[in-house]
């Protein structure tokens, strides 16, 4: 992906021997001239080899950026203390593929010149340097069919420098960095992403609080059709959110915090924790099913997708017996555990082979994370296409139903 102009790129074309008499062996053509040659009716004018040669300017052209991304990809699984070591002559740190793809000085020039927006057009948006990148990825992801089961959660982009939007979340694998609100399928495909920027966050304000505004805003930006089912944790779930999702034709299921239950007549969590493992109590009210279940800790879930309470059997480890026991589990909690992990799955895949090249620019982690996220999305969709080729079914329909 490149945000640079095509006008400054020239092509160095090697023509067949039959044309070498009337044309020099190597000649520079513009992009338009190359397209004219390819569209020509004369079959003898087939180009045997095309290589893009950038102008000798201090601008980063499309071909250089493509090689740059390849170098970034390699550094995700071949890490070194400093990126200069990739071009070293020492066998233990050098990388032949990178050394043959681009010179070190050229790579440093691109790293110094790469940008997404004009620095003269500064706005109040804290993420103005990478805003076009997030918007472009979200627009591309919107073209994919929306799956039936969706999950909403936050992802973290690791960053230890100074920035007004840097967050600290205790207990997360990445505690320091930028927070990204994300809407994904249950299988991990990201449809919509929005960096958290306080009052500058570009999500609709519903008046229901931050959590409901994030869920409804992501659904609205992604164009989610009615009938889809959303799963979200206790950071987003409120009774007013479930009512609004019902009014819009969405399914909604999520865990709830104790302070969001208000006057719901359920046993207090501390008293309910003294009951046996697997015990549950529920309440059906205004089309919502509210369930409290005692597992390792007390869990409270609200859902508008089940009108009646039902249970299934699940297995839990018994410390006294040193064996697995079968305990009763509410069906809505089973469905929540099945479909909630899409955001965490995508985040795990992104961090598995994260680009290790660092920079002093505050927006570089966002830039490299966006590239990794796009590659993970492509890989997820490739898996579905390959599965469809094996089973002989419609790709888009399987992608929607999964």
Automatic annotation (TrEMBL):
GO MF entries: sequence-specific DNA binding
Positions of the PiggyBac transposable element-derived protein domain: 75-379
Pfam families assigned: DDE_Tnp_1_7
Superkingdom classification of source: Eukaryota
Entry protein name: PiggyBac transposable element-derived protein domain-containing protein
Organism: Synaphobranchus kaupii
């Amino acid at each position: 992906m490149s945000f640079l102009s095509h006008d400054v790129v020239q092509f160095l074309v090697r023509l067949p021997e039959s044309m070498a008499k009337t044309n020099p062996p190597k000649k520079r053509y513009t992009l338009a001239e190359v397209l004219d040659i390819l569209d020509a009716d004369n079959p003898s004018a087939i180009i045997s080899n095309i290589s893009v040669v950038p102008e000798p300017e201090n601008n980063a052209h499309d071909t250089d950026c493509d090689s740059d991304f390849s170098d970034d990809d390699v550094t995700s699984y071949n890490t070194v203390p400093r990126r200069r070591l990739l071009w070293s002559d020492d066998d233990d740190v050098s990388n032949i593929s990178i050394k043959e793809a681009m010179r070190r000085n050229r790579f440093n020039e691109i790293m110094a010149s790469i940008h997404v927006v004009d620095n003269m057009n500064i706005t109040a948006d804290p993420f103005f340097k990478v805003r076009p990148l997030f918007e472009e990825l979200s627009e591309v992801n919107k073209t994919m069919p929306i799956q039936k089961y969706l999950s909403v959660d936050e992802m973290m982009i690791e960053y230890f420098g100074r920035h007004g939007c840097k967050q600290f979340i205790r207990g997360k694998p990445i505690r320091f960095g930028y927070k990204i609100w994300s809407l994904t399928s249950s299988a991990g495909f990201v449809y919509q992403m929005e960096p958290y920027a306080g009052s500058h966050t570009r999500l609709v304000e519903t008046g229901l609080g931050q959590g409901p505004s994030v869920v409804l805003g992501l659904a609205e930006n992604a164009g989610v059709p009615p009938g889809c089912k959303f799963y979200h944790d206790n950071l987003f779930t409120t009774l007013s959110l479930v009512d609004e999702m019902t009014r819009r034709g969405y399914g909604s299921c999520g865990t709830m915090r104790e302070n969001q239950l208000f006057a719901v007549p359920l046993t207090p969590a501390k008293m309910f924790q003294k009951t046996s493992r697997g015990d549950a109590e529920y309440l059906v009210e205004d089309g919502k099913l509210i369930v409290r279940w005692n597992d390792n800790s007390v869990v409270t879930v609200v859902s508008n997708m089940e009108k009646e309470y039902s249970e299934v059997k699940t297995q839990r480890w018994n410390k006294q017996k040193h064996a697995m026991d079968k305990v009763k589990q509410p069906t809505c909690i089973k469905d929540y555990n099945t479909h909630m992990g899409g955001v965490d799955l995508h985040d795990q895949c992104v961090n598995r082979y994260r680009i290790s090249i660092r920079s002093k620019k505050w927006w570089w982690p966002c830039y490299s994370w966006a590239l990794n996220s796009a590659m993970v999305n492509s890989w997820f969709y490739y898996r579905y296409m390959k599965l469809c080729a094996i089973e002989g079914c419609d790709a888009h329909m399987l992608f929607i139903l999964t």
